[in-house]
Amino acid sequence: MIFGDVVRSRRDATGSTAWLRTLATELAAAVPPADRMAEFEFTQGDELQGLLAPSVDPIAAIVRAGLHPDRRPMRWVVVAGDVDPGNGPATQRTGAAFLRARERLVEAAARRDGLVVESGDPAADTLLDDIAPLLAELLDDLTDRQRVVARLILVEGLRRSQAAERLGVSRATVSVAADRAHVRSIGRLAGALGRLFAEGAAIAAARRFGAASERAAG
To answer: Which residues, in sequence order, are CB contacts of 97 under 8 Å at separation 6+?
Structure first.
């Protein structure tokens, strides 16, 4: 389950709604239908919700959102777990993961964390709790120019020379912007979070399956 809450959305409800519509469209285009267990949808003006397949890295979606040129400050929560069966968009679904994501979103707001990730495995989640907010801070600290460069490199997968050609500037200019934006660190941190989340979620799922099998056998 992935929740994205627009920070202080009531200050500009119309703009927040427009941003969420743009983001939902972008993520739907970036994530193949087979990898979405429910369509991305948003509540009126403040919150995006999505349900991704276990094989999909949800951190990539958050990086894509954080590097979008029209971005608005957001608070993100990712939770692995069970969701009740259904066919509607994420906003019409429920289940243990959905309810837990709602709880974590409240906690994130109280702690002023921009990103909370929970896999369901205590060992992994101890690390995720400490590390995940750092990614949100790095993304929030980018200037508009740095965000453009970071998006070309991290989202579109361009080399620095290719990004420079796209922008019509020198490679040195792109390199300075990328280094000051800590683009390499953002990419490495996002990758590490995605792997840690996937490993923790797999362990937690195996544990739930084992517990269910024992109950059935008993």
So the answer is: 1, 79, 80, 81, 82, 83
List Cβ neighbours of 31 (8 Å cut-off, separation of 6 or more).
40, 52, 56, 61
- Whole-structure pTM value: 0.90
Write out pLDDT tens, residues 50-103.
999 988 999 999 999 999 999 999 999 999 998 888 788 888 888 889 899 999
Residue 71 and residue 16: Cα distance in Å, rounded? Answer: 10
Q: How far is CA 160 from the centre of its chain?
A: 24
Which residue, chain included where needed, has tokens 């979405």? Answer: 36
Strand 36-42 to 115-118 pairing: unpaired
> Any residues with CB less than 8 A from the CB of 40 and at least 6 apart, and which?
23, 24, 27, 28, 31, 48, 49, 50, 89, 90
* pLDDT tens, position by position, 101-150: 999 999 999 999 999 999 999 999 999 999 999 999 999 999 999 999 99
For residue 42, give every residue at least 6 positions away whose Cβ sits within 8 Å of its Cβ, in sequence order, or none.
17, 20, 21, 23, 24, 48, 49, 91
The tally of CA atoms less than 13 A away on the side-chain side of residue 5 is 21
- Neighbouring CB atoms inside 10 A of 209's CB total 10
To which residue do tokens 């024992």 refer?
214
30: its two tokens: 């970036």
